[in-house]
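Reopening: structure tokens for the pyridoxal-5'-phosphate complex, inputs below.
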Amino acid sequence: MKKVKKLNKVRLAILGGEKIIKQKPPHFVWPIIDKKIEKAVIGQLYQSISIYNRSGIFKEFEDDFAKYHGKKYALLCSSGTLAIHSMFSAIGLKEGDEVICPAYTFFATVSPLLFTGAKPILCDCDDNGNIDPQEIKRKISPKTKAIIITHMWGIPCQMDQIVKICKRNKLILLEDCSHAHGAKHKNKIVGSFGDMAAWSLQGQKNITGGEGGVLVCNNKEFYYKALLLGHYNKRCKQEIPKSYPLSKYSTTGMGLKYRAHPLAIAVAYEIFKNYDKLLNIKNQFARTFINNIKNLKGVSLPPAFFDKNIKPSWYGLVFQFNNKELRNLPIENFFKALQAEGLRDSDIPGSTSPLNLLPLFQDPAKLFPVYGSCKNTFSYKTGDFPKAEHFYKNALKFPVGSSLKDKKLTDLYIKGLKKVINNYSDLL
Ligand SMILES: Cc1ncc(COP(=O)(O)O)c(C=O)c1O
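Re-run output (same inputs, fresh job):
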């Protein structure tokens, strides 16, 4: 039973009432810079601020990260976008190939593909906002070479079905785990399902160095090709054996530089060392939040939140604002009321939008002439992916605490959300 409890008449802050949170932002601070991180960064600063080969902090991070995911190779990069580009380049995509991609994701899951000339075949999403396996099946053609998936907002995709589809159709599986560090599906960690996987280590990510990225794989050839794309000279010479047919390119690689910054990796490595503890804290906060809001009118939670097989990473707590239950109150008005209550870290995710709404995927040829030829052209438009567009238009994102100190704020965010829902009719 959904309940709307009328407390004794409370006035919403947006209508002149007292706000729930008076504390100025920032609220949920991330990353938390502590003495350990400070020490690691200063230590690294004196050791080396540029690493040309596979040594030092890069080797330590990569060894541990690969092991954590049960993979043979890990390769740090300067961003998640470039780790994703490295995957597309490593698997040898070319003009005329097709890659199945989620319509609902951050654009960098797909934009690097445009540099290969392969065509992105977008797919609608399921009720969790993740790529829908039934849609994938419909989009496979003789030209399909690979599928890339994103575990959106930290919720693992439907991996049983996706892995089966890839095996049956001999397709390469790539995972964008940028929202989902350490998330698990049936106790198997994301990033371990695919042929290759990539993570962003940027600013707000659960494992962050401020900027950075990393990829993993088991396939030696994919690894060498990722090295050749952006890790020329010393690192290529150190790792690519003379017997490998492309080793003669080691000095230049493909001419790009995707190396990470050692200071960023010093930060990310400290966070990674204690990561399971962080995941536990986040899980506790997320569960408190869910238990408190699951029966509220106007709130629809993704089914994955109640699936025992799924352990999200809680990059954010994203749910659907169901205004049908609130007499069609526009989400923008609801959001303004939340902000007025002082819930400044609540968010309507804007830039993570269905790709068909973006000029880059509506009219790519002006920036990427390779898509001007009629054989290889594509053009998406508003309305192409109704489920993704609906999910996007109704998504609200709440922060999930990372330190026990966030308990008070978490309780206040819950209280603020309840207050606005209980008094929504005053906004109509
Ligand atoms: C799903 C997803 N993929 C890729 C990226 C790109 O990562 P980066 O910003 O490190 O290049 C992001 C960044 O926000 C992301 O959210």
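The pocket of pyridoxal-5'-phosphate is lined by residues 79-81, 105-106, 108-109, 150, 176, 178-179, 200, 202, 213 (CB under 6 Å). The radius of gyration is 23 Å. Marking as resolved unless the reporter disagrees.
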